[in-house]
């Protein structure tokens, strides 16, 4: 899954953001399980970038929900 930038996220609907969050969370759990088994990750910075992207998605989702109130 691609890493989103803020401008790309703002163009998405709330449902699309939720789907992206779920996809990224599953990818993050796969990366963490590889790390837990002791194998070397292909891209060591991927876990950090996934966490940051999930946080970006959640932040913008909350902003959009607040606008719609």
From TrEMBL:
Q: Which PROSITE patterns match?
A: RIBOSOMAL_L29 (PS00579)
Single Gene Ontology BP annotation: translation
Record keywords: Mitochondrion included? no
Residue spans making up a coiled coil are 14-67
Q: How is this protein annotated for GO cellular component?
A: ribonucleoprotein complex; ribosome
Q: Which controlled-vocabulary keywords does the entry list?
A: Coiled coil, Ribonucleoprotein, Ribosomal protein
- Point out the gene that encodes the protein: rpl29
The GO molecular function terms of this record are:
structural constituent of ribosome
InterPro entries listed in its UniProt record: Ribosomal_uL29, Ribosomal_uL29_CS, Ribosomal_uL29_sf
Question: In its UniProt entry, what is this protein called?
Answer: Large ribosomal subunit protein uL29
